[in-house]
Amino acid sequence: MLDTPYPHVTPGPPRPSQIVTPASLALHSGRERFEVQGAGAALIRVSAGDKITVTNTEGGQRCEVVAADGKGRIDAGILGVAANSDAAGLKALLSGNTGSGLGGLRLGIERRGIDLSNAGAVALFDGQTPAGTDESFIATRDGVVIIAAPGNPMDPGAQDTATPLVVTVQRSTLVQMTRHDLADPLAEPVLDLRVKSATAQAYFVKAGDYIQIIDVDGRQCTDFQCFSARKLDKGIEHALDVTTSRTLMGHAYSMPGLHAKYFDQDFLPLLEVVQDTVGRHDAFALACASKYYDDIGYPGHANCSDNFNTVLAQHGVAPRAGWMAVNLFFNTHIDAHGVLISDEPWSRPGDYVLFRALTDLICVSSACPDDTSPANGWYLSDIHVRTYGGAQKFQRAVATRATPDAEPKMTKDTGFHPKTAALTRNVVEYRGYWLPQDYAGVGAIEEYWACRQKAVVIDLTPLRKFEITGPDAEALLQYTLTRDVKKLGVGQVVYSAMCYPHGGMIDDGTLFRLGRDQFRWIGGEDFGGIWLREQAHALGLKVMIRSSTDQLHNLAVQGPNSREIIKRIFWTPPVQPTAEELGWFRFSIGRIADAPVVVSRTGYTGELGYEIFCHPKDCAAVWDAVWAAGADQGLRPMGLQALDMVRIEAGLIFAGYDFTDQTDPFEAGIGFTVPLKSKPDDFIGRDALIRRKDHPMHKFVGLEIDASVNVGHGDGIYIGRAQVGVVTSATRSPLLGKNIALARIDVASAGPDAIVEIGKLDGLQKRLPARIVAPSHYDPKKLRPQS
Fold this sequence. Notes:
Largest sheet: 8 strands, mixed
Number of strands: 42
Distance between the termini: 84 Å
Number of helices: 16
């Protein structure tokens, strides 16, 4: 090789970093995405030249599109087409009480003066439309479109569910591409205030009023601080104190639910968090200050603390070098070494936090000017503040997303909530719904014994339901589930795993066969339905997978007396089995309190039990019938805390605890769901599961713990200094009178009756001896649920 005085160089200009993010976070793309819930509708502003695309995501969902101009006049010509229907579906949704989040839509229609009484609509799709079908329009002039996904209440024995539509709008002008529309207000605002980039604004909020702080363009942080106005009148400058709030709430930052309040240093409650669409904030670091920028080489940089000082001066508040604050949308956490880590925010365009003032407040909000770190996603933008009168009613809610690209879904009440709320206020967010943790006047221990000895009723609505229909439904399920679906008869239920190609579990759940080509999958994850839909599309199968969770709420009646209760209230036609005839893992279709229901002999307690599925509108009647029938049978309500006790005793697994996508069914203790030798057809993950079964690394076991010290998920299991496993679930068993656990242990260390130690503190300084036993601590042969 010839010597050269020049170093080797990479030819050409630099390549941009390859970063994959959700489409809604792509800067300057001009593409906005909206999700219209089944039996719901949405209003979207459009401008001339915008391309509007409506996608029938799950298939079989009707759609109505109504267009109106800036003066509220209905005109389908805005979309370049003629109306072909009378918008009956949209009108029915708005006139009823079953629509999905239609309060804001009604307000938007009213504010624009739109009269729907004689409105014409563009009707799209029908009940046979394949999943993924779309229709597009180009807006001919400025206006709004109302897009509806009409639907009637679903009959639990049928599969006529209403499902979401996805709307994408490709904006036509550069101005629209660089800024996002501000969504309509949640109600009529008292204050509508824009906080410009790198500035701050102070404002007054009356006790009982609501404060909505909105990230307009996404990934923009805002510091929030407030004072009791009455204290300020007396010259007392007691700001919201995050240290006090963390201590009293027991959380890193307050969230909707039981740990929702913020306080000042005198423990005076200042405000509570009502809604949060992000779920990641900071309450440790100060608002950015001049010293921060000075120390990293940016003297004189704009900062939130100085901006606070400027706008608070008019309220007589003395300046501070650095302000304590609730740093909304900041993405920080403390790593295993105690270091405070900061990264790009989770917030998307339009995300918000909604507070409720608990006393008269002077508030201040900033639009953080930090362009020196990822804290604002390397792009500074505005914050918007709206306040609403205290007469408004907003439900407590947090948002969840099924996938990174999905729209946020706010926590909802189940159809049984009016009944359970009358018995307890101790509720927690669980998979998008508020569920009781335990019941006042009963308590988890009494609920536990009622399940083991008499009967309990449990709201299990958050289970995800999917209607799988079409000539290729069986073929899809045979390929995507581990069980042999071809052996499943109409009226039968089977418990199965669903796996990725590498053998890791997506979900576990139960499959109902309603007909030759009709199935219902009930699991724990929204992604289960998405996965099924993806596989059907990839294989070109003739099958629809439609979500029905919001249309099908369910109540479990469990315990030795459950059959007697169901027998008293469940009517079935001659072609369906009665409660007495209903076998284990079978279901029947009939009526309770004249409401159509599906009743299955299934459960999650290790006891004889049934599950009732009905439409939300019938939940109150079903609850009342069950409650009345169980009055002399010792029936009690049961919350999640007691449910966890009974399911751990019975060795029943829980997603995210006892299995993840790194766990195969054998390692999760449900190897019986993988009939490798008897299932004649291939299925996703089969080759990997054969390999993992033949060469296991871990075994799922039970532990009996010789100590009354609390044990929890994630605690290490040791032999000597070496960690050989991990606790996946644990509880104090009232029946056995000792701590028990489910665990995953290195197969070489998992022999029966082997003695191991559970590590506490740092895993070494405190140990709890434990003995390895079978995972099912209670009724290992499952004789009770089969009785």
